[in-house]
Amino acid sequence: MLERRVVETIVRERRLRWPIVAHFEAAIRGQTVRGIDRRAKYILIRFDAGTLILHLGMSGSLRLVKHGTPPNAHDHWDIQLDSGWILRFHDPRRFGSLHWTESDPAAHPLLKQLAPEPLSDAFNAEYLYRATRKRSVAIKQFIMNSQQVVGVGNIYASEALFRARVSPRRAARRLTRKEANALARSIKDVLAAAIKIGGTTLRDYVNADGAPGYFRQKLFVYERAGAACRVCRSAVKQFVQGQRSTYWCSNCQR
DNA sequence: ATGGGCACCTGGCTGC
DNA sequence: TGCAGCCAGGTGCCCA
Hints:
alpha+beta; N-terminal domain of MutM-like DNA repair proteins; 4-stranded antiparallel sheet; 5 helices; DNA-binding
Protein backbone atom coordinates (compact mmCIF):
# COMPACT_ATOMS: atom_id res chain seq x y z
CA MET A 1 0.00 0.00 0.00
CA LEU A 2 2.83 2.38 0.74
CA GLU A 3 3.32 5.05 -1.92
CA ARG A 4 0.19 3.92 -3.77
CA ARG A 5 -2.30 6.54 -4.87
CA VAL A 6 -6.04 6.49 -4.26
CA VAL A 7 -7.87 6.20 -7.58
CA GLU A 8 -11.42 5.88 -6.32
CA THR A 9 -13.36 5.34 -3.12
CA ILE A 10 -16.68 3.54 -2.85
CA VAL A 11 -18.75 3.80 0.32
CA ARG A 12 -21.69 1.39 0.42
CA GLU A 13 -22.68 1.95 4.05
CA ARG A 14 -21.97 5.21 5.82
CA ARG A 15 -23.55 4.14 9.09
CA LEU A 16 -20.61 2.82 11.05
CA ARG A 17 -20.22 3.62 14.74
CA TRP A 18 -20.19 7.20 13.55
CA PRO A 19 -21.46 8.14 10.08
CA ILE A 20 -18.72 8.52 7.48
CA VAL A 21 -18.59 12.23 6.66
CA ALA A 22 -19.91 13.26 3.27
CA HIS A 23 -16.67 14.87 2.08
CA PHE A 24 -14.53 11.81 2.81
CA GLU A 25 -14.38 10.49 -0.77
CA ALA A 26 -13.45 13.88 -2.22
CA ALA A 27 -10.84 14.50 0.49
CA ILE A 28 -8.96 11.28 -0.07
CA ARG A 29 -9.16 11.08 -3.88
CA GLY A 30 -5.76 11.32 -5.54
CA GLN A 31 -3.92 11.11 -2.21
CA THR A 32 -0.83 8.93 -1.82
CA VAL A 33 -0.33 6.60 1.16
CA ARG A 34 2.73 7.81 3.07
CA GLY A 35 2.66 5.67 6.18
CA ILE A 36 0.69 3.30 8.34
CA ASP A 37 0.73 3.54 12.13
CA ARG A 38 -1.24 2.39 15.14
CA ARG A 39 -2.33 4.06 18.36
CA ALA A 40 -4.16 1.88 20.88
CA LYS A 41 -6.62 -0.06 18.68
CA TYR A 42 -6.81 2.67 16.08
CA ILE A 43 -5.14 2.18 12.70
CA LEU A 44 -3.70 5.37 11.21
CA ILE A 45 -3.15 5.62 7.46
CA ARG A 46 -1.24 8.78 6.66
CA PHE A 47 -1.57 10.73 3.43
CA ASP A 48 -0.11 14.09 2.41
CA ALA A 49 -3.30 16.01 3.07
CA GLY A 50 -4.54 14.15 6.12
CA THR A 51 -4.84 10.92 8.06
CA LEU A 52 -7.41 8.18 8.03
CA ILE A 53 -8.25 7.00 11.55
CA LEU A 54 -9.80 3.54 11.49
CA HIS A 55 -11.13 1.24 14.19
CA LEU A 56 -12.20 -2.36 13.58
CA GLY A 57 -14.60 -2.46 16.49
CA MET A 58 -15.12 -6.07 17.38
CA SER A 59 -15.97 -7.66 14.05
CA GLY A 60 -14.19 -5.47 11.53
CA SER A 61 -11.46 -6.48 9.12
CA LEU A 62 -9.38 -4.87 6.39
CA ARG A 63 -8.24 -6.82 3.35
CA LEU A 64 -6.50 -6.13 0.11
CA VAL A 65 -8.44 -7.60 -2.80
CA LYS A 66 -7.90 -7.38 -6.56
CA HIS A 67 -9.73 -4.68 -8.46
CA GLY A 68 -12.99 -6.09 -9.75
CA THR A 69 -13.56 -8.45 -6.82
CA PRO A 70 -17.30 -8.27 -6.12
CA PRO A 71 -18.21 -7.11 -2.62
CA ASN A 72 -19.82 -9.40 -0.10
CA ALA A 73 -22.40 -8.51 2.51
CA HIS A 74 -21.02 -6.10 5.11
CA ASP A 75 -18.20 -4.86 2.86
CA HIS A 76 -18.87 -1.22 3.74
CA TRP A 77 -16.20 0.64 1.85
CA ASP A 78 -13.40 0.25 -0.71
CA ILE A 79 -10.36 2.39 -1.33
CA GLN A 80 -9.10 1.55 -4.80
CA LEU A 81 -5.37 2.07 -5.32
CA ASP A 82 -3.39 2.67 -8.51
CA SER A 83 -1.72 -0.72 -8.02
CA GLY A 84 -4.90 -2.54 -9.00
CA TRP A 85 -5.62 -3.52 -5.42
CA ILE A 86 -8.50 -2.40 -3.24
CA LEU A 87 -8.35 -1.85 0.50
CA ARG A 88 -11.72 -3.25 1.59
CA PHE A 89 -13.40 -2.81 4.96
CA HIS A 90 -15.73 -5.54 6.20
CA ASP A 91 -17.65 -5.24 9.45
CA PRO A 92 -20.87 -7.16 10.13
CA ARG A 93 -21.60 -5.43 13.42
CA ARG A 94 -20.58 -1.94 12.36
CA PHE A 95 -18.85 -1.16 15.65
CA GLY A 96 -15.90 -0.05 13.55
CA SER A 97 -15.31 3.51 12.45
CA LEU A 98 -13.62 5.78 9.93
CA HIS A 99 -12.51 9.35 10.54
CA TRP A 100 -10.60 11.65 8.23
CA THR A 101 -8.51 14.37 9.87
CA GLU A 102 -6.38 17.03 8.29
CA SER A 103 -4.77 17.99 11.60
CA ASP A 104 -2.24 16.23 13.79
CA PRO A 105 -3.93 12.86 14.47
CA ALA A 106 -2.50 12.74 18.00
CA ALA A 107 -4.63 15.79 18.76
CA HIS A 108 -7.79 14.17 17.46
CA PRO A 109 -10.51 13.86 20.13
CA LEU A 110 -10.47 10.07 19.83
CA LEU A 111 -6.74 9.84 20.41
CA LYS A 112 -5.62 12.74 22.54
CA GLN A 113 -6.78 11.32 25.88
CA LEU A 114 -5.43 7.81 25.42
CA ALA A 115 -3.12 6.25 28.01
CA PRO A 116 0.44 5.17 27.09
CA GLU A 117 0.94 2.14 24.86
CA PRO A 118 0.78 -0.91 27.16
CA LEU A 119 3.77 -2.61 25.58
CA SER A 120 5.95 0.50 25.82
CA ASP A 121 8.25 1.39 28.71
CA ALA A 122 6.02 4.34 29.55
CA PHE A 123 3.42 1.89 30.79
CA ASN A 124 4.98 0.35 33.86
CA ALA A 125 4.40 -0.40 37.54
CA GLU A 126 5.12 3.15 38.61
CA TYR A 127 2.67 4.56 36.06
CA LEU A 128 -0.06 2.14 37.14
CA TYR A 129 0.53 2.72 40.83
CA ARG A 130 0.36 6.49 40.48
CA ALA A 131 -2.63 6.42 38.14
CA THR A 132 -4.66 4.27 40.52
CA ARG A 133 -4.16 6.51 43.54
CA LYS A 134 -7.40 8.10 44.75
CA ARG A 135 -9.48 6.09 42.31
CA SER A 136 -12.30 4.21 43.97
CA VAL A 137 -13.52 2.48 40.83
CA ALA A 138 -13.06 -1.31 40.68
CA ILE A 139 -9.68 -2.25 39.25
CA LYS A 140 -11.25 -4.23 36.43
CA GLN A 141 -13.15 -1.20 35.18
CA PHE A 142 -10.08 0.93 35.71
CA ILE A 143 -7.88 -1.16 33.41
CA MET A 144 -10.61 -1.13 30.76
CA ASN A 145 -10.68 2.69 30.78
CA SER A 146 -8.70 3.88 27.76
CA GLN A 147 -7.68 7.07 29.54
CA GLN A 148 -5.85 4.91 32.08
CA VAL A 149 -4.85 1.75 30.22
CA VAL A 150 -5.09 1.03 26.53
CA GLY A 151 -5.59 -2.31 24.78
CA VAL A 152 -7.38 -4.15 27.57
CA GLY A 153 -10.89 -5.21 26.63
CA ASN A 154 -13.24 -7.44 28.57
CA ILE A 155 -11.43 -10.71 27.90
CA TYR A 156 -7.91 -9.57 28.74
CA ALA A 157 -9.08 -7.61 31.78
CA SER A 158 -10.23 -10.80 33.51
CA GLU A 159 -7.15 -12.68 32.35
CA ALA A 160 -4.65 -10.04 33.46
CA LEU A 161 -6.25 -9.77 36.90
CA PHE A 162 -6.17 -13.53 37.31
CA ARG A 163 -2.49 -13.66 36.45
CA ALA A 164 -1.77 -10.83 38.87
CA ARG A 165 -3.85 -12.59 41.57
CA VAL A 166 -5.89 -9.43 42.17
CA SER A 167 -9.67 -9.46 42.66
CA PRO A 168 -11.56 -7.62 39.91
CA ARG A 169 -13.64 -5.94 42.63
CA ARG A 170 -10.72 -4.32 44.41
CA ALA A 171 -10.86 -0.52 44.49
CA ALA A 172 -8.09 0.72 42.20
CA ARG A 173 -6.56 2.83 44.96
CA ARG A 174 -6.20 -0.22 47.21
CA LEU A 175 -3.58 -1.76 44.95
CA THR A 176 -0.27 -2.12 46.72
CA ARG A 177 2.97 -1.32 44.93
CA LYS A 178 3.64 -5.00 44.65
CA GLU A 179 0.26 -5.62 43.07
CA ALA A 180 0.61 -2.69 40.71
CA ASN A 181 3.87 -4.22 39.64
CA ALA A 182 2.28 -7.64 39.10
CA LEU A 183 -0.67 -6.17 37.21
CA ALA A 184 1.40 -4.00 34.90
CA ARG A 185 3.50 -7.08 34.17
CA SER A 186 0.47 -9.33 33.58
CA ILE A 187 -1.20 -6.80 31.25
CA LYS A 188 1.92 -6.70 29.12
CA ASP A 189 2.28 -10.47 29.20
CA VAL A 190 -1.34 -11.21 28.33
CA LEU A 191 -1.42 -8.74 25.44
CA ALA A 192 1.93 -9.84 24.05
CA ALA A 193 1.04 -13.53 24.30
CA ALA A 194 -2.36 -13.02 22.67
CA ILE A 195 -0.93 -10.94 19.83
CA LYS A 196 1.72 -13.55 19.19
CA ILE A 197 -0.78 -16.32 18.53
CA GLY A 198 -3.43 -14.33 16.72
CA GLY A 199 -5.68 -13.00 19.44
CA THR A 200 -8.80 -14.56 20.90
CA THR A 201 -11.57 -15.95 18.76
CA LEU A 202 -15.00 -15.97 20.31
CA ARG A 203 -17.93 -17.69 18.72
CA ASP A 204 -18.00 -16.67 15.06
CA TYR A 205 -15.10 -14.26 14.93
CA VAL A 206 -12.02 -14.83 12.82
CA ASN A 207 -8.93 -12.80 12.06
CA ALA A 208 -7.98 -11.10 8.79
CA ASP A 209 -6.82 -14.38 7.24
CA GLY A 210 -10.11 -16.04 8.09
CA ALA A 211 -8.40 -18.15 10.76
CA PRO A 212 -9.41 -18.19 14.41
CA GLY A 213 -7.17 -16.72 17.08
CA TYR A 214 -5.70 -19.39 19.30
CA PHE A 215 -5.43 -17.44 22.54
CA ARG A 216 -8.80 -18.85 23.51
CA GLN A 217 -7.03 -22.06 24.45
CA LYS A 218 -4.81 -20.16 26.86
CA LEU A 219 -7.57 -18.44 28.80
CA PHE A 220 -7.50 -19.11 32.53
CA VAL A 221 -10.89 -17.75 33.53
CA TYR A 222 -12.75 -16.01 30.71
CA GLU A 223 -15.96 -17.86 29.80
CA ARG A 224 -14.99 -20.64 32.19
CA ALA A 225 -17.64 -20.02 34.87
CA GLY A 226 -18.20 -23.19 36.89
CA ALA A 227 -15.12 -24.91 35.47
CA ALA A 228 -12.11 -25.75 37.61
CA CYS A 229 -9.49 -23.03 38.05
CA ARG A 230 -6.42 -24.17 36.14
CA VAL A 231 -4.24 -23.32 39.12
CA CYS A 232 -6.16 -24.35 42.26
CA ARG A 233 -9.06 -26.39 40.85
CA SER A 234 -11.75 -24.41 42.69
CA ALA A 235 -14.72 -23.23 40.61
CA VAL A 236 -14.25 -20.16 38.42
CA LYS A 237 -16.84 -17.50 39.26
CA GLN A 238 -18.69 -14.97 37.17
CA PHE A 239 -20.50 -11.73 37.90
CA VAL A 240 -21.33 -8.50 36.10
CA GLN A 241 -19.40 -5.24 36.37
CA GLY A 242 -20.44 -2.25 34.32
CA GLN A 243 -22.70 -4.40 32.16
CA ARG A 244 -19.80 -6.74 31.36
CA SER A 245 -19.18 -10.27 32.54
CA THR A 246 -16.20 -10.68 34.83
CA TYR A 247 -14.61 -14.07 35.44
CA TRP A 248 -12.30 -14.80 38.35
CA CYS A 249 -11.07 -17.31 40.90
CA SER A 250 -11.97 -16.19 44.41
CA ASN A 251 -9.33 -18.50 45.82
CA CYS A 252 -6.40 -17.34 43.69
CA GLN A 253 -7.40 -13.68 43.53
CA ARG A 254 -7.68 -11.39 46.55
C1' DA B 1 -13.51 15.24 38.27
C1' DT B 2 -15.41 10.91 38.85
C1' DG B 3 -18.37 7.09 38.37
C1' DG B 4 -22.19 4.71 36.41
C1' DG B 5 -25.16 3.58 32.77
C1' DC B 6 -26.46 3.65 27.86
C1' DA B 7 -25.88 3.28 23.13
C1' DC B 8 -24.50 1.30 18.77
C1' DC B 9 -25.20 -3.77 15.79
C1' DT B 10 -25.71 -8.48 14.14
C1' DG B 11 -24.96 -13.50 14.31
C1' DG B 12 -25.14 -17.43 17.18
C1' DC B 13 -27.42 -19.72 20.42
C1' DT B 14 -31.32 -21.08 23.49
C1' DG B 15 -35.82 -22.24 24.41
C1' DC B 16 -40.53 -22.44 23.23
C1' DT C 1 -38.50 -26.41 11.62
C1' DG C 2 -39.37 -21.51 12.73
C1' DC C 3 -39.02 -17.75 15.31
C1' DA C 4 -38.57 -14.52 19.19
C1' DG C 5 -35.42 -13.04 22.53
C1' DC C 6 -31.02 -12.89 24.84
C1' DC C 7 -26.16 -12.23 24.78
C1' DA C 8 -21.46 -10.96 23.42
C1' DG C 9 -17.94 -7.64 22.13
C1' DG C 10 -15.19 -2.03 22.27
C1' DT C 11 -15.59 2.29 23.84
C1' DG C 12 -17.41 7.11 23.43
C1' DC C 13 -20.76 9.91 25.47
C1' DC C 14 -24.24 11.65 28.55
C1' DC C 15 -25.92 12.50 33.08
C1' DA C 16 -25.75 12.81 38.05
